[in-house]
Amino acid sequence: MKIVNYEIIVRFTKKHADARAAFKRWRDLTEAAIWRSHDDVKRTFPSADKYKACTIFDIGGNKYRLIAKINYDQHIQIVNVRETMTHAEYDKDKWKSDCESGQ
């Protein structure tokens, strides 16, 4: 998979240095993956959830969240990072409006 908008993660991990290793692990696994469906994502990240057009990843033992939109087309294979946040920020649900439509 190709990851776009990775700079969102870079900015986040500058503020949350303890998250760097966990986000690096997510990146390594994601870039090595070939996902054709959400079921494939779940095989790599069992705690990943769907919300409308978004996939939510638990990062760092449920301490952080990564929200992404994924294009599973075999010719595209893109994970579009939309937002990273702490678990407390995630619980405020402000990220949900971005998940109403596709890429």
Helix-strand blueprint:
Layout: E1 2-4, H1 7-15, H2 20-32, H3 38-44, E2 49-51, E3 54-59, E4 64-71, E5 78-86, H4 87-90
In short:
This protein has four helices and five strands. The protein is α+β, with helices and mostly antiparallel strands.
Explain how this protein is built.
It is a single chain. By secondary structure, this protein is of the alpha+beta class. It has one domain: YaeB-like fold (2-Layer Sandwich), CATH 3.30.2310. Helices cover 32% and strands 28% of the residues. It has four helices and five strands; from the N terminus they run βαααββββα. The chain has helices spanning 7-15, 20-32, 38-44, 87-90, and strands spanning 2-4, 49-51, 54-59, 64-71, 78-86. Strands 1-5-4-3-2 form a five-stranded mixed β-sheet. A hairpin with a 6-residue loop joins strand 4 (64-71) and strand 5 (78-86). The longest helix is centred in the first third of the chain and has 13 residues, at 20-32. The two termini are 15 Å apart. The model has no long low-confidence stretch (mean pLDDT 95).
